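User: Please predict the structure of the protein below. I'd like the answer in structure-token form so I can feed it into my own downstream comparison script.

Assistant: Understood. Taking the following sequence of 101 residues as input:
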Amino acid sequence: MLSMLERGKVMTEVLENIEFTVPSYALCSIVNGDETGMTDDEIESVDALEERAESLRDAFGGTHYHWSVSEGAESEFCHTNDVDGMAGDCVVINLVIMRSV
């Protein structure tokens, strides 16, 4: 998947868009870096997801990435998720891997 986004005078190439199912409690931490109210185990699980995102960025040859939540995305019950593997209230988000060109 290659597309170009123009931001000012810098062009950004989208290399990959990967869906992840994450628990609702982790969303603020993943998107905004806000770990308020999270347990140490929850924070460790989110940190592991960030490490996975960095590894994927490197594997695809990207220079940066961001997390994206679709407008109007709603949470729903899931039997497992990509952060801690537990059942619970989850949201689907996207890891967008990019590079500056």
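That's the full token string. Residues 68 and 87 are 22 Å apart (CA to CA).
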